[in-house]
Amino acid sequence: MPVKPKLGQNFLVDSEATQRIAASIGDLTGRTVVEVGPGRGAITAALAARAAHVVAVELDHDLALQLRVHFPSERVTVVEQDVLNFDFVASSAAAGQRLLVVGNLPYGITSQILLKLAANHAAIDRAVLMVQREVADRVVAEPGSRDYGLLSVTVQIYGPAQRLFTLPPTAFSPPPDVHSTVFRWRFAPRFEELRVEEASFLRFVRQCFAQKRKTLANNLRAAGVPTAAIAGSLAHSAIDPLARAEALPIESFATLWHCLEMKGAASPGEAALNKINPS
Fold first, then answer.
1. Is the omega angle on the peptide bond into residue 175 within 30 degrees of 0, that is, cis?
2. Is 126 helix (H, G, I), strand (E, B) or coil?
3. Is the distance from CB of 123 to CB of 148 less than 8 angstroms?
4. 3-class DSSP state for residue 30?
5. What CATH architecture applies to the domain 193-262?
6. Counting C-beta atoms within 10 Å of the first and last residue's C-beta, which end of the chain has fewer, N or C?
7. How many of the other CB atoms lie within 10 Å of CB of 118?
8. CA neighbor of 202 nearest in space, from 277, 106, 97
9. What pLDDT, in 10s, does the model give residues 134-146?
């Protein structure tokens, strides 16, 4: 079956890697797994051998037909749909449990899929995802590192992310131009722990990272936060007035958000962001 480049198709052909990915999600006994982008079914087979049921979400009509022929419906349900429109909450309710998610994510919409999963965190237990290595570097980055940024905070506020292993282009057909990294994401949102309102806090963090070369104070000022409120809140939070956002751990963002809230200067709550800029 020909590859469709516009769908970002790079099929995993390394059999050892498929087994490692399936094993990385943990014990699948009695569990329902949602697979994002099953493609030709390499990882699907490894999951179906371990899980009670696999829900394979595939956009490509021809591949979806092929998967239905290859796998028995009592083990694998093939949903021909864009994963960005998939109803994780309904699938979790049908399964009677929080879902496990596995996927080789298309490079072009990786960030949108990550945010889709974050928005459905209540329905998901954990995920093992394969993404472009550079994206994984940003997902798991620590404060102060070159790769730490908006994507790092947005993913990690929903739960810890751990790099597992990296695969070369030769593990795929056709081989992509980049390496791919598999990481595990456990969904345990920190909003309640940090006492921050989800939508408002996400908006605030995005403002803090708006311009990478600018200081945190300048980014907040550009977002319309009063200068006096910024200065007072930074001082109260023990944050260097010349600090950039990439130097701050999530806890410091939460402290600063609280200070600005007390001054009535934090951004008002609104709908969660519908796009992550992974840069």
1. no
2. strand
3. no
4. coil
5. Orthogonal Bundle (1.10)
6. C
7. 22
8. 277
9. 999 999 999 999 9
Nearest-angstrom CA–CA distance, 10 and 8: 6
Which are the contacts of 201, defined by CB distance < 8 A and separation ≥ 6? 157, 191, 194, 253, 254, 257
Contacts of 197-201 with CB under 8 Å at 24 or more apart are 197/269, 198/269, 198/272, 199/269, 199/270, 199/271, 199/272, 200/257, 200/266, 200/267, 200/268, 200/269, 200/270, 201/157, 201/253, 201/254, 201/257
Reduced to 3 states (helix: H, G, I; strand: E, B; else coil), residue 67 is helix
Helix axes 227-236, 250-262, angle to 10 degrees: 130
Q: What's the rounded Cα separation, in Å, for the pair 33 and 133?
A: 24
- Which amino acid, residue 222? A
On whether the CB atoms of residues 241 and 232 are closer than 8 A, the answer is no
Whether the Cβ atoms of residue 84 and residue 109 lie closer than 8 Å to each other: yes
* Model confidence, pTM: 0.90
Mean pLDDT value of segment 34-56: 97
Coil/strand/helix, residue 174: coil
- Does 8 score more than 60 pLDDT? no
- Looking at residues 77-81, what average pLDDT do you find? 98
Of 159, 81, 79, 94, give the one whose Cα is nearest residue 125: 159
Alpha-carbon torsion (172, 154, 249, 228), positive or negative: positive
The segment(s) of the chain belonging to CATH 1.10.8.100 are: 193-262
